[in-house]
Amino acid sequence: MPAADTPSTPEPFPTFETSDFSGAGTFYFDLVRLQDRDDIPRGFLHRHKYYHLLWMTQASGTHLLDFEQFEVRDHSVFFLSPGQVHAWTSSVPPRGYVLNISTEFFAKMFPRADDIARFPFFHLTRGTPVIYLSPEQHDGMLPLLQQMERETMERGMGCFDVVRSYLLILLTQLRRLYREEDAGEGAGPSFSLTRRLGLLIEEHYLTFGAIRQYAEALCVSERQLNEAVKRTLGRTVSQLVQERIALEAKRLLSNTGKGIAEIAFQLNFEDPAYFARFFKKHSGCTPGEFRRRYCRPID
């Protein structure tokens, strides 16, 4: 972890707006082999404005994703949604694929706004963003990535339609393996309602001040909404909203030079001291301690 003399006002970390690994000059869908890039892995905190999938055939290290640490190992698959903050390292040369997927590309696959929530690994309020495959599972799905790679290289007629088909098959097969999905499917309507709530929280966590507003937007009662979330996640709506606010606080502390009081006001806290107590409750440390911890590249 960073030493105690880490600067208290970090430089903003990079935000990657587009991806052009392929050299096509425009960004819609991009795929590249990890072993073909000398700028990957990136051990510094950064974010993307597009969906990002890391398919790791070979790797060994650490992935810090929205300030939670995950093991990087052979046959790992990581999923990131736009805006998430991450950094990762590998002690061995990584092999595998990076898929960068624009929101426009996904909009063609998932026409309804909440369709993407069918895939819990892209669902910020619910899913663990990693799947650890067995060698057999990895090898069984690898041809799908190889086919996508071939299509993007050859750029034949309708290539992105073909890529979308392969990608949907890949995501569906990964969803079958996702360890939390079985419980979610069993929850039926509660699971569906919780997925929709997660998307709504992402959009309105700073503008909706009452649980009633989420319930009204979803056309259910507050009691129905809380019961659905409790049944699906074992938490309350209020807890989900608070967790999202705490995450945004972490992003602002690690990515801006704003003072702690300024961040508190930006997140609708009138009292900076109350914000500090809120933050410590959700992160286990003070805002200042958190800022010092995450100002440097991960080890």
Form type: globular
Number of strands: 10
Helix content: 40-55%
**Secondary-structure element string:** EEEEEEEEEHEHHHHHHHHHH
At the fold tier of CATH, the topology name of the largest domain is Jelly Rolls
The structural class is alpha+beta
- For this structure, what is the CATH homologous superfamily of the largest domain? Regulatory protein AraC
CATH hierarchy class name of the largest domain: Mainly Beta
Strand arrangement, major sheet: 1-3-8-5-6
Q: Main beta sheet: strand number and arrangement?
A: 5 strands, mixed
- What is the mean predicted local confidence, pLDDT? 87
Which terms would index this structure?
299 residues; alpha+beta; Jelly Rolls; Arc Repressor Mutant, subunit A; five-stranded mixed sheet; five-stranded antiparallel sheet; 16% strand; globular; disordered N terminus; transcription; Homeodomain-like_sf; transcription regulation; sequence-specific DNA binding; activator
Overview of this protein structure:
By secondary structure, this protein is of the alpha+beta class. It folds into two domains: 163 residues, Sandwich (Jelly Rolls), CATH 2.60.120.280; 106 residues, Homeodomain-like (Arc Repressor Mutant, subunit A). Helix content is 44%, strand content 16%. The protein is built from eleven helices and ten strands. The strands form two sheets. It has a five-stranded mixed beta sheet with strand order 1-3-8-5-6, with no helix packed on it. It has a five-stranded antiparallel beta sheet with strand order 2-9-4-7-10. The longest helix is centred in the middle third of the chain and has 20 residues. The radius of gyration is 20 Å and the shape is globular. 31% of the residues are buried.
